[in-house]
Amino acid sequence: MSIDILMPALSPTMEEGTLAKWHVKVGDTVKAGDVIAEIETDKATMEVEAVDEGVVEAILVEAGTENVKVNALIAKLAGEGESPAPAPKAEAPKAAEAPKPAAPVQGGGETAAPAKPAPAAPVTADGSRVFASPLARRLASAAGLDLKNIKGSGPHGRVV
Asked: Deepest of 52, 59, 101, 153, by most Cβ within 10 A of its Cβ?
C-alpha cells in the first residue's frame, strides 16, 4: 500500500507554500526522520522529514512550485517490502497535477511566472552569505535590487 506524503502546515495559519527543493528522487529509499524536501513560506524555509520508511514511488509536485495548498498530495512512498509502481503509473499523476500550478494564475495571480523558484541567497565578495527572508529575496529580485547592497533591519542584520 502506498504512503501519501502531504504538504505540511508549518504554522497554524499557513494555507499554502512553495515546494522549494526535493532532497530525494524517485527510487530513493527513505527512513523516518530523513529530510526529503524544503518548503518555503513568506517568512521562513523549513525542511520536511519523512514520517515513514519506504521507497520514493512518485514525486507529484515539482521543485519550485508555488501556491501548493496545505494537505495537498506532493509525493508517494512504496511501503516497506513493496516494490514501487511501474514508471508509467507514476507518470500519470504528474500529468494530472501539471494544471494545478497554472490554476492560480488564471484566477488573477499577481506574478507573471508562478512556478519560478525564489532566487538563491546572494553571497558577498568576501564569501559570506547575505541573510534574507524568502519574501525579501523575491521582492528584491522582482525590483532588480541587489541584496548585498541592502542593510538588513531584522535580527542579526537579516533583510526582511
From this structure: 59
Q: What CA–CA distance (Å, rounded) separates 132 from 40?
A: 13
At residue 13, the pLDDT reads 85
- Across the chain, what does the average pLDDT equal? 74
Mean pLDDT of 127-137: 78
131-to-108, 119, 120 alpha-carbon distances in Å = 31, 13, 11
pLDDT for 81 beyond 80: no
From 14, 35, 38, select the one nearest 117 (Cα to Cα).
Answer: 38
Domain at 2-106, CATH from 3.10.20.30, 2.40.50.100, 3.40.630.10, 1.20.1070.10? 2.40.50.100
The 65-69 sheet, strands edge to edge:
45-49, 35-40, 16-22, 65-69
Give the pLDDT mean for 60-72.
89
Q: Using CA atoms, how far apart are residues 14 and 30, in angstroms rounded to an integer?
A: 26
CATH of domain 118-160: 4.10.320.10
